[in-house]
Amino acid sequence: MRGDRKPVAEEKKESIKEQFLKYEKSIERIYWIFLGVILVTEFFASTQFAQMMGTKFAEMTKDVDPQLLVLISQSIMNLRFLIAIPAFYAVFIYAEDLKKGFLLLLLVLIGWFYAFYWRKISDTVVFEALLVMVASYKKDFRKILRFGVIIASIMTVAVVLISFVDGVPEITVQENQAILHAFGFKKPTVLACHIMFILLTILYLRDEKIGWKEILGVFVSLVLVFLLIDRGTAVFCMCLALVGAVVYSLFKKKGQKLSEGLAKVWGGIMLIPFIVLSTAFMLLVRSYSLEPTAFYNRIPFLALLNHRLEVTHRVTYIFPFSYFGINDFVQLDKGSNYTYLDSSYARIYVMYGVVALVLFVLIFTGLQCRLLKAKQMFRMYIVMVIAVSAVTEHYLIEPAFNTILLLPLATLMIREKDQKDSVSKESE
């Protein structure tokens, strides 16, 4: 009897897979629809037009109970996540038996994050980040990144063009003697970070195909952003990306490769940026002092972080420590009680807790491990640039900005797969 059970179970499993294969393309489309809805809605939320629509809607519904309006709007936004159900069904069909338990554990964790943080601070950022990450299991990373770049590029161009229409208020910031423009986004830095992540994603995609066209594109974008939009973190990280692309292109052109020893050292350095930077930033926050004689004010680089360190120190001093974030924490970006957290590491630590910070640091370090195993050194460098940007910008776990966030469970070993496919074709 026992011998008969295994074939029956296998037949049932095969029949489920056969039924799934009939609808594979439809379920695949549902994944892209789900991802598109998440990217478009979150991207739109970063624009000035989202604020304008919110103000107009508030005027139209001023006689309606505010709590009811909040409940309705939150319910509509949460309905987006129902589209993910068929995508997760596909994930489980594709998964091997040993990995289904791991994926199930991740889903339970995601569900817990949603229930906990929604009840705690009515926030779904961590939930969204983990949701799209798991839904991207076994998906081709190139398709994911191209999809994200296309959406981000189209929406960026559209928002910038619409910002020139009469009646759209212009948001500008004066920095030294320069006037910096937001071009339809909430702040100039928001647009600059969108452009930065688009360029980083393109460089990540191009990898071995990087040449003078990509380098020229990054350089022109860098100059335009510096002159018109922002002179902060985005420009610095674009400079890092440009230098890395030039050096990588020269190495590749000369046919040079890193020696085995140097490759190990480089790989080891690229593995730890998230661990080192997040730990160092939080240690600086804990030891921060308002005294003018403090060493922060004597070191140029740390002086640039002074404001972010001061705000984060004040927030963590006022509110009690929590492994899962501060209850009812509200970010204020105006006035004397300024509590807006620009750093990704600080924001995750304060709003979602040290557990969430450790989780995302491990996730990105795991991505670096996979890239190291695949010997994709330049892509490791691009992820390192993202780790640097996270010190002063808060977009690390927002898919509408950082599409590379979706890659930890996606297919990365494309070159090895292509080699296997070519070998099988030759044998045929």
Describe this structure in words.
The chain has 428 residues and is mainly α. The protein has one domain (2-419). Helix content is 69%, strand content 2%. The chain has a two-stranded antiparallel ribbon. Helix 9 packs antiparallel against helix 17, helix 13 (273-286) packs antiparallel against helix 16 and helix 16 (344-373) packs antiparallel against helix 17. The two termini are 41 Å apart. 33% of the residues are buried.
Quick recap of the structure?
It contains 18 helices and 2 strands. The protein is an all-alpha fold.
Question: Helix content range of the residues, please?
Answer: 55-70%
Structural class: mainly alpha
Overall 3D form? globular
User: Which stretches are low in confidence, meaning pLDDT under 50 for 5 or more residues running?
Assistant: 1-6, 413-428
Task: Please tally the β strands and state the result.
Answer: 2
Strand portion: under 5%
**Strand/helix succession:** HHHHHHHHEEHHHHHHHHHH
- Rounded to the nearest angstrom, the radius of gyration is 23 Å
Largest sheet: 2 strands, antiparallel
Blueprint of the fold:
Elements: H1 2-22, H2 24-45, H3 48-60, H4 66-78, H5 84-94, H6 97-121, H7 125-135, H8 141-162, E1 172-175, E2 178-181, H9 188-206, H10 212-229, H11 233-253, H12 260-271, H13 273-286, H14 300-304, H15 306-318, H16 344-373, H17 377-389, H18 414-427
Antiparallel strand pairs: 1-2
Helix pairs in contact: 2-5, 2-8, 5-7, 6-7, 8-9, 9-10, 9-11, 9-17, 10-11, 11-17, 12-17, 13-15, 13-16, 16-17
